[in-house]
Amino acid sequence: MTSFDHRVATVDTRAEIETPENVTLSFNVAGPGSRMTAYLIDLVIRVVVFWGLSFVVSAALPVLGDGLTMGGFLIGLFVLEWGYSTIFEAFWRGQTPGKRICGLRVLKDAGYPISFYDSVLRNLLRAADFLPFGYGTGLICMTSTRRLQRIGDLVAGTMVVRDATHRFQPLTEAFAKLDPIQPVDCSGTFAVSERTLDVIEQLLARRDKLPKRRVEEIAEILARPVAAKLGYRIDDDPGLDRHEYFLRRVLRTFGMTQERNAA
Questions:
Q1: What gap in Å lies between CA 56 and CA 51, rounded to an integer?
Q2: 104, 116 in Cβ contact below 8 A?
């Protein structure tokens, strides 16, 4: 490979991840510009909340006294500074209001959703990324890593990606008419992880861009271990696309919740 080719590969913002189910997921990694825009939006929101908190403190000061009022103010300020991004990213599927507006999302570098621990770790290390000022260290780290990860991302094993604009839309009429899988049809554990549901959703979102036979081949690779966990017999289902159909039923059964559709 020539040095020119190596430079092009280094600045490529596409990350491809192969899951344990042998399904390759592709993500567009977010650059410093879009991440800074999201940060500024969140900063404006936090400043507005700060001024609102200051107004409440001023109003409560004559009633509660200096000690109690200032104690509450300092706790609120701490939560606002360190808890804002952590709480939103942990419970809003990797997004803060700023990231959602900019179409960004934090994921694990293996392609699945982050946990509360991941969110805490990456946000606590923002202090290191900020050094010496203006997130200088974080910017240098981002430009030096293939997936544009700052120190917090490297330690937590996360990355910030552009949210897919072609996500599978589950609330179509045909999808809603699918028969959910019933517990009586399964002999195993009647549950499918969030990570697996995300992989299924990614496959179904891309089905129109792949040959139908290839979709069924990939669906079979993914469906077999899921069916084995559920204790469900796919071979009893009719049709040549039985594995894709099974995955649609899995998503219909375990994925159609208010929490998943809200994001």
A1: 9
A2: no
Q: Which residue has the tokens 């109003």?
A: 59
pLDDT, tens digit, 9 for 90 and up, residues 95-142: 999 999 998 999 888 777 888 999 999 998 888 888 887 788 888 998
Coil, helix or strand at residue 263? coil
For 161, the 3-state DSSP assignment is: strand
Tell me the one-letter amino acid at 242: R
Q: Write the Ramachandran bin of 37: left for phi over 0, alpha for psi from -120 to 50, otherwise beta.
A: alpha
**Helix or strand (DSSP H, E) at 16:** strand 14-18
Q: ∠ at Cα 229 (89, 119), nearest 5°? A: 10
Q: Which amino acid is at 185?
A: D
User: Could you report how far apart the first and last alpha carbons of the chain are, in Å?
Assistant: 41
Are 249 and 237 in contact by the 8 Å Cβ rule? The answer is no
Q: How many residues does the chain have?
A: 263
Grouping H, G, I as helix, E, B as strand and the rest as coil, residue 195 is helix
- Side chain identity, residue 128: A
pLDDT tens for each residue of 205-262: 777 777 888 888 888 888 889 999 899 988 777 777 888 889 988 888 887 543 444 4
Q: Which of 47, 35, 11 is nearest to 103 (CA)?
A: 35
Check: CB of residue 38 under 8 Å from CB of residue 101. Answer: yes
> Which two structure tokens, joined as six digits, stand for 46?
């936090």
Whether the Cβ atoms of residue 133 and residue 78 lie closer than 8 Å to each other? no
